[in-house]
Specification:
613 residues, alpha+beta, 3-stranded mixed beta sheet, 12 helices, 11 strands, endocytosis
């Protein structure tokens, strides 16, 4: 007999992997075990997917039909899920699942997430790889396909000493290769959604003292959930943090800010070179990177940058990692495209090296210092260690070391976040408008203005040729002066065509960096706003006498940690913004002065020739 449930309310799917429900509709369940408040099943229309567990009621009456006699649910009878060990032979078969379910743990024991199941067996925190969408997927292009250098089947656990002393032990004291790359979560008796082990969730009476819990977001695909922010705020993150992994937020003169990098450095990107592999069947562009703190050159392809971006975007949910320069399907080896990509990578690298957290990140240092061409084993070990980093998602927030929470006022924080949200929206709109205007103006200078000045110059040369028909000696100087005037207009047209490379291209490169930069902040703000919502909800429960003050204080403390990190990232954004745009304006003013002087010289040249004659 298959498990069934009846829909209590209508539910409309909004994300991939969900199915819609109609009130009173009978569904077939894949399992009675809910996944963070969601069940998987098949509706009456044959659609299979996830739906909220609170929207349905499990039907426990056995269906009539042949087979063994009915027995009580949970005692090995037909009402029990087939994956339990006490199901007798000949019991029912559950609906086939696309992924295997782990064995059910005892109600008092902790079981880490099982490999292969979307959200694990006994834990409620999803692993870093989200199966139903979300998260950054490294873009794949024809010039950056993964090859054997990246895709062999070995793992970091296969390399002796690759994890630096072995994997962390599980909470039950065990350790081994299976513990690597897995969340080690504590049991959540206070935040549990319901009884485990196959029993239906039992909701306490609404008037019971200290019985309320902070609700979970229904949208399990929101940034707040996928980033691990919700799990951290609700106290579900638990892991082992080394001292070297701590990220410090300090109080500066303008509020929270990231602790400065004690060893700042820069990195140059030069010598883009076309190289081949597989006896010339595959071509790519290699860039030489030279960090100032090592002075040892390393060579990287664009796919290496792409991999690094994916790792950083996954690891740091409240830090903005700017987007890389876009790929191009055709013309990948044209000089203009290579030059433009190199300038974009330079801007990107400058931003990364200037960030106090990103610059010191292990994966970033591995990218800058490990010579993949000469020490392939060390490169692969560091690469796979980064891909199996446990301090991502909810566990990332455990690495944050913040000032005392008394220094933070939630109302003031909310006001600052709202103000920054308006700022980023306005700056994004203004950057798009400026980029469009600059592109249009550059196009006119390269084509329109140059062509118009050439027309004027051609007209003057035509007049000079007409004057040369007069063979009088006293007219020779005048004829030459008019010819020089035509040449001067041609030179001015060339100056217009070259000028965008000097003034407009740099600002468009900077705008491209900030467009990918600003696009990250809505998600960062969403994480912080989600944490504030949980704090407000917990306070309301305390006022109603439904939650202990200690639990609410824990939620607020964890929200403060996210708020400190968000404000520190906002401070760094403004600080670097002032540096970049001040540098650009100083350089632009100098170029404008030089441009005016060059134009004046071009116009004075024919006049001097004329008066000299």
């Amino acid at each position: 007999m298959a498990l069934r449930a009846r829909a209590l309310y209508d539910f409309r799917s909004e994300n991939p992997g969900e199915i819609s429900l109609r009130e009173h509709e009978v569904l077939s369940l894949c399992s009675e075990q809910d996944i963070e408040g969601w069940l998987e099943g098949v509706n009456s229309r044959g659609d299979r997917g996830l739906f909220p567990a609170s929207y349905v009621q499990v039907i426990r009456a056995p269906e009539p039909g042949p087979g063994p006699g009915p027995g009580p649910a949970g005692d090995g009878g037909p009402g029990a899920p087939a994956r339990y060990a006490n199901v007798p032979p000949g019991g029912f078969e559950p609906l086939p699942l696309p992924l295997p379910l782990p064995a059910a743990p005892p109600a008092s024991a902790f079981q880490p997430p099982a490999a292969g199941f979307p959200y694990g067996g006994g834990a409620l925190q999803p692993p870093p790889q989200q199966p139903y969408g979300g998260g950054y997927q490294a873009s794949q292009g024809s010039d950056d396909d993964w090859d054997d250098e990246w895709d062999d089947s070995s793992t970091v656990a296969d390399e002796p000493g690759a994890l630096g002393g072995g994997a962390y032990p599980d909470l039950d004291g065990s350790s081994g290769p299976g513990a690597a790359g897995r969340y080690r979560l504590s049991t959540r008796s206070d935040l549990s959604l319901g009884a485990r082990g196959g029993a239906a969730p039992q909701h306490p009476p609404s008037g019971a003292k200290s019985s309320a819990t902070v609700s979970r977001n229904l949208n399990r695909f929101s940034t707040f959930v996928k980033s691990g922010g919700e799990a951290f705020v609700l106290g579900e993150a638990s892991g082992f943090v080394k001292d070297g992994d701590k990220l410090c937020v300090v109080l500066g003169p303008y509020g929270p800010e990231w602790q400065e990098n004690p060893y700042p450095f820069q990195c140059t990107i030069d010598d883009p070179t076309k190289q081949t592999k597989f006896k010339g069947m595959k071509s790519y562009i290699s860039y030489k990177l030279v960090p100032t703190h090592t002075q040892v050159p390393v060579h990287r392809r664009y796919k290496h940058f792409d991999w690094l971006y994916a790792r950083l975007a996954e690891k740091f949910p409240v830090i903005s990692v700017p987007h890389l320069p876009e790929k191009q399907a055709t013309g990948r080896f044209e000089e203009d495209f290579i030059s433009k990509r190199r300038k974009g990578l330079i801007w990107w690298m400058n931003h990364m090296a200037s960030h106090p957290v990103l610059a010191q990140c292990d994966v970033f240092q591995h990218f800058l210092t490990c010579p993949s061409s000469t020490d392939e084993k060390a490169w692969k070990q560091g690469k796979r260690k980064a891909e199996k980093d446990e301090m991502v998602g909810a566990n990332f927030f455990l690495t944050l070391s913040t000032p005392p929470a008394a220094a933070l006022d939630l109302q003031e924080v909310e006001s600052k976040i709202d103000g920054f949200k308006c700022f980023t929206k306005k700056m994004d709109d203004s950057a798009l408008q400026l980029n469009h205007t600059a592109n249009e103006f550059a196009r006119k200078q390269v084509t329109g203005f140059k062509k118009e000045y050439q027309k004027v110059g051609q007209s003057f040369r035509g007049l000079s040729q007409a004057f040369e028909l007069d063979q009088q000696a006293f007219s020779a100087g005048l004829n030459q002066a008019i010819a020089f005037t035509g040449d001067a207009y041609d030179a001015i047209g060339e100056l217009f065509a070259e000028q965008p490379r000097q003034d407009l291209d740099p600002v468009m490169d900077l705008l491209a960096l900030y467009q990918g930069h600003l696009a990250n902040f809505p998600d960062i703000i969403h994480v912080q706003k989600g944490a504030l919502t949980k704090v407000k909800e917990s306070r309301r429960h305390v006022e109603e006498g439904k939650m202990e003050v200690q639990k609410a204080d824990g939620i607020q403390d964890r929200c403060n940690t996210i708020s400190f990190a968000t404000l520190a990232e906002i401070h760094h954004f403004h600080q670097i913004r002032n540096v970049y745009w001040t540098w650009y304006l100083k350089k632009e003013n100098a170029r404008l002065r030089n441009g005016r002087e060059n134009s004046a010289l071009c116009l004075q040249k024919p006049q001097k020739k004329f008066f000299a004659s």
